[in-house]
Amino acid sequence: MSVNRNTMTETWALIPIKRLDTAKTRLSPALTRHQRQDLTLAMARDVLSCLVDCEQLAGIAIVSADEKAKQLCHAFEALWIEEPPGADLNTAITAAAGELMVRSVQHLICLPADIPLIRPHDIQALLSHHHTAPAVTLAPATNSSGTNALVCSPPAVIPFCYGPDSFYRHQRNASRVGIKPQQITLPNIGLDLDTVQDIEQLLANPSAQGTHTLQVLLDIQYTPACRTGLLKDKTERL
């Protein structure tokens, strides 16, 4: 039985954001450190811009230790959750989920900050696919075995295991606690920007029009030549 909107009144989205100085290192052959930071913030802004328009959400939270992420959080009037010192991604998300449960959050949508094509109808599709608690729903990354959306009811119903093959690991964790995980493929959520090939897919996608992410790529005059670093920012200081 899938849930309806009336039973999802305490649904929150959680966005973990890495420290910007370590973000998107796989793009370093094409983009400078400063360009990667700008791109990371632009993608997060696109995700947050989508979420604030989602009437299904009761709130949005960001877990991070980065000061610029904190400024972005305040700009969108989201809840700031300070990342525990020395925490890895899964520890940070687990801590955030625990804090949200203290706030009586019943359903958690964990989303990465690098899916700039996400739209409100994608959130609606996720929730329409989700079952009554206890329940887990996942949307995979298009170009990897990663988890690009994870809906958990209650928020800490399974251990978080982001990293290599996280999509299958989350499925196994759900099965171990007696939950049949639901799966839905959503192209807008599936495209995360980790490699130059991902960027080129985004540039070829008409849905990128009007995004902050596309504007950053246009501002730095991104082209396929960036694969070899031909458009490096001359102002970068390593």
Q: Count the E strands.
A: 7
Label the overall shape: globular
Low-confidence stretches: 1-7, 228-238
CATH-wise, what's the superfamily?
Spore Coat Polysaccharide Biosynthesis Protein SpsA, Chain A
What does the radius of gyration come to?
Answer: 17 Å
The biggest sheet amounts to: 7 strands, mixed
Find the structural class using helix and strand composition.
Answer: alpha/beta
CATH class: Alpha Beta
Give a written overview of the molecule.
The chain has eight helices and seven strands, in the order βαβαβαβαββαβααα. The chain has 238 residues and is of the alpha/beta class. The chain has one domain: Spore Coat Polysaccharide Biosynthesis Protein SpsA, Chain A. The protein has a seven-stranded mixed β-sheet, sandwiched between helices. α1 packs antiparallel against α8. The chain is globular. 45% of the residues are buried. The N terminus and C terminus are likely disordered.
Compact summary:
With 238 residues, the chain is of the alpha/beta class. The chain has eight helices and seven strands, in the order βαβαβαβαββαβααα. α1 runs antiparallel to α8 (212-219).
How does the SSE layout of this entry go?
Layout: E1 11-17, H1 33-51, E2 59-64, H2 67-75, E3 79-82, H3 89-102, E4 107-110, H4 120-129, E5 135-140, E6 147-153, H5 166-176, E7 182-183, H6 187-190, H7 196-203, H8 212-219
Parallel strand pairs: 1-2, 1-4, 2-3, 5-7
Antiparallel strand pairs: 4-6, 5-6
